[in-house]
Amino acid sequence: MKVLVIGAVAAGLTAAYSIRKNIPEAKITIYEKGNDISYGACGFPYYIEGLIEEERKLIAKTSERVKEDGLRLLLAHEVVDVDFDKKELTVKNHKTQEIFVDAYDELVLGVGASALRLPAFQKMKGVFALNNLADANAIKNYIEEMKPQKAVIVGGGNKGIELLETLTLLAIDTQVIEFMPHILSIYDEDVSSLLVRELRGEGHKINTGEKVLDAKANEKGFVEKVITDQGIYEADLVLETIGLRPNTAFLEGKGLDMERGAIKTTLYGETNLPHVYAAGDCALIYDHLMEKPVYLPLGTNANKVGKLIGLVLAGKKPPFKGVQGSALLKVFEFEMAMTGITDKGAKALGKDYDSVLVRTRNKSGYYPGGSEFFVKLTYEKLTGKVLGAQVFGKEGAGLRIQGLVASVYAGLTIEDLAYMDFGYIPPLNSVWDSINVAAGKAVAQNTLSTEDI
Ligand SMILES: Cc1cc2nc3c(=O)[nH]c(=O)nc-3n(C[C@H](O)[C@H](O)[C@H](O)COP(=O)(O)OP(=O)(O)OC[C@H]3O[C@@H](n4cnc5c(N)ncnc54)[C@H](O)[C@@H]3O)c2cc1C
Q1: Nearest atom (ligand 1) to Cα of 34
Q2: Are the beta carbons of 302 and 279 closer than 8 angstroms?
Q3: Cβ contacts of 20 within 8 Å, gap of 6 or more
Q4: Residue 352 DSSP SS3
């Protein structure tokens, strides 16, 4: 079996290794248009900050290691065309400019996505997106060499808010500008506003409902001002974190099903075309709660589907229901997390839902040093099934989502969680765990509303 893989970061490389493990006789070639592979993009904010001191620590597998492991890896090789009928790729070697054709039995697309950019900043120096290792190094080098004083982050999603911490820790006066009425729009507003309140309370500048219109550069071409519909901001560093576009332009119009540039896949990364698989930021992934493929460009998802592709090619389909939009965020001392469907999502899906948001503490009331911990549960009114959960707090709050992830995945109800046997110790929680408390409140609320009917 001859397998061609395009892309050598999370999705592509995981798929290649999974195929190698499950089908040892497979001949695997990986084409990567860049020169960097197997890096942990999730670590970039900490690398730019200097917490992770060396680039090599971000790299899981070097190209030498990949070759030693029996995979044929070709760097600076861009796949520029594909013929799905003939099962052939056209590849350009950027070192020699040579163009050649290679045939496959099975094809894995792990081509990722690129950052969307605003025309206002085109060709301006001091303006960056953060999507790959070269971007991370460019930002790091710029900060070290140019010592910027004032930054604007355009976009208040997860990446933008993580980078607010990074730049602040580097003593750069930073302003976040978000076009939407709320930052972190994947969360419900009552939860995201808890974080915003804390950040603004600590003096961080987060503007919402504000649109970047233009920018001005100095005579040397370096960004100097960011102009919005509400003001003008001085900035000698701009980071654009406004979203992603899948790297699939070369696949368009060739019979591959796509939705807004993202490749449609089944639960196991299969596309509509035989012998063609896709995973990671270039593809949709099946969400078992939404009951459809959705775009969730996360490292977790790229790794998962990459691994599954290797198993599927070997004729194995391990039990897997799909993902459910689980995500974690840590910024300064605050932690936030979610899984499943929010109120916003439940409304959009036309579900008959309700929710509770409870304020508890992360330690027993009498234990010193505790802080507020918030849990939100969204549930289906008729069945009490927990559709989704969101949490916010400090120190350990984020990982409290994992129990809720399992509950949502398993289809548990608020009744199940109200008396669930959670462990207890005063420095970590209360005798009634916060999840018991939230679920108990939801049961009481749901009983009342059901009695009303
Ligand atoms: C700053 C940052 C923080 C993040 N934090 C988190 C986090 O905390 N948790 C989380 O789950 N996820 C996080 N992510 C997301 C996660 O890193 C990505 O989802 C993941 O890296 C996607 O991997 P991928 O292999 O699909 O795509 P990519 O990493 O984009 O790799 C695709 C590769 O394909 C190559 N390629 C593209 N087109 C071609 C072609 N035509 N020919 C040959 N090669 C090609 C590209 O050069 C690239 O190397 C973060 C991402 C960033 C940038």
Answers
A1: 47
A2: yes
A3: 26, 28, 69, 70, 71, 310
A4: coil
- Give backbone dihedrals phi and psi of 401, rounded to 5 degrees, phi first: -70, -25
- CA of residue 234 to ligand 1 center, whole Å: 31
The pLDDT, as a whole number, for residue 448 is 72
State percent of the chain over pLDDT 70: 99
Question: What pLDDT score does 447 carry?
Answer: 87
Residue 183 alpha carbon to ligand 1 centre in Å: 23
Give the H/E segment covering residue 102: strand 99-103
* pLDDT recorded at residue 450: 62
* Max CA distance (Å), the chain: 75
How far is Cα of residue 363 from the mean position of the Cα atoms in its chain?
Answer: 30
Structure tokens at 34: 């860049």
CB atoms within 10 A of CB 315: 8
User: ∠ CA(407), CA(410), CA(415), 5° rounding?
Assistant: 55
- The finding on whether 387 has its CB within 6 A of some atom of ligand 1 is no
- Give the residue among 18, 28, 1, 7 at the shortest CA–CA distance from 309: 18
* Strand stretches in 222-371, DSSP E: 223-228, 232-234, 237-240, 244-246, 258-259, 262-263, 276-278, 285-287, 292-294, 327-331, 334-340, 353-361
Cα 144 from Cα 159, distance rounded (Å): 21
- CA atoms of 398 and 31, how far apart (whole Å): 37
Q: How far is the centre of ligand 1, averaged over its atoms, from the C-alpha of 113 (Å)?
A: 7
- The dihedral region occupied by 450, where left means phi > 0, alpha psi between -120 and 50, and beta the remainder, is alpha
Whose CA is closest to 338, among 347, 329, 330?
Answer: 329
Substitution candidate for ligand 1 out of 247, 305, 339 with most atoms within 8 A of CB? 247
Cβ(297) to ligand 1 under 6 A? yes
Query: What is the pTM assigned to this prediction?
Result: 0.95
Contact call for residues 18 and 310 (beta carbons, < 8 A): yes
The 10 Å Cβ neighbour count of residue 410 is 10
CB of 446 within 8 A of CB of 414? Answer: yes
Task: Give all domains of the chain, ordered by start, each with its CATH number.
Answer: 2-40+59-113+245-313 (3.50.50.60), 117-242 (3.50.50.60), 336-452 (3.30.390.30)
Q: What is the pLDDT of residues 188-244, one digit of tens each?
A: 999 999 999 999 999 999 999 999 999 999 999 999 999 999 999 999 999 999 999
CA distance 258 to 283: 8
Q: Considering only CA atoms, which of 141, 138, 165, 137 is closest in space to residue 151? A: 165
Q: What is the DSSP code string of 14-76? A: HHHHHHHHH-TT-EEEEE-SSS--SB-GGGHHHHHHTSS--GGGGBSS-HHHHHHTT-EEETT
